[in-house]
Amino acid sequence: MIQAEALTKRYGDTLAVDDLSFEVRPGRVTGFLGPNGSGKSTTMRMIMGLDHPTAGRTMVNGRRYGDLGYPLREVGALLEAKAVHPGRSAYNHLWCLAQTNGIPRTRVDAVLQLVGLEDVARKRAGTFSLGMGQRLGMAAALLGDPGVLLFDEPVNGLDPEGIRWVRNLLRGLAAEGRTVFVSSHLMSEMALTADHLVVIGRGRLIADMPMAEFVAQSSRQFVRVRAPASTDLAGLLQRAGATVVPEADGALAVSGMAAPAIGEAAAAAGLVLHELSPQSASLEEAFMELTADSVEYRGDVPAGAVPDPTR
Question: pLDDT, tens digit, for every residue of 32-70?
Fold first, then answer.
């Protein structure tokens, strides 16, 4: 388990993390989300003892990271894929780490095979692509077979097959009862990977809840309804208190009223329905809505800034 208690970090006048508290429990993948500059990487660094909090504390399995006798056996982390001497081979990088924590040489071979780097194990890490560097970083995180794992943007530089491999790996580790804490800006991938979310903005906690609950609270939830007498149906539903917005294809987007209630109201009025389908917001839509006030850097494309390719 990972615990953050009233965690605060200042860099001069900049408040990077502000009184942040949460728990990451075993047996599930917990996604760590937030806009750029929200404090995610700083929080992970404090969990790993790389940055010291201004106030508060972080704990791993009830102890500070610095108090762990053999930390690689308890906590594995990928925070910076290029944190490796470029002149060392992948094998020697892992073997050096293994010797600091009493990890046998056989484990080095095992994790190289697990991440698919056995064929390039003797090549210098400095020649690796970004994706290969990510795989080497994951091998280092898994080296001590730890029960707690942190990954900061683990799919950067990976191709679709590699992204799928990481997804399955993380879910498999959680299914074994491990604590898995992962940040990513790829919302579509996080939606497929995470069971629970911790969302922060400007260093403060915004949400700490299951994935399904986070998405369900979005105001973008609605029911798509299609009926021959759409005008009559729209009036009926509006009188019942629903908000009805006509869509371009003639369907009605209905919010504020659940699908069963819509169907029952239409049946009572003798109106035929051709479609009655609840629509859920995507994780990206829910995230953008919830963090709209926490985005530090915004970009707008002014009119005419993008040239017309047909001219």
Answer: 999 988 999 999 999 999 999 999 999 999 999 999 999
Instruction: Spell out the residues 6+ positions from residue 172 whose beta carbon is closer than 8 angstroms to its own.
Output: none
Strand partners, 10: 15
pTM of the model: 0.80
Residues 6 or more apart whose CB falls under 8 angstroms from that of 26 comprise 1, 147, 174, 177, 178, 179
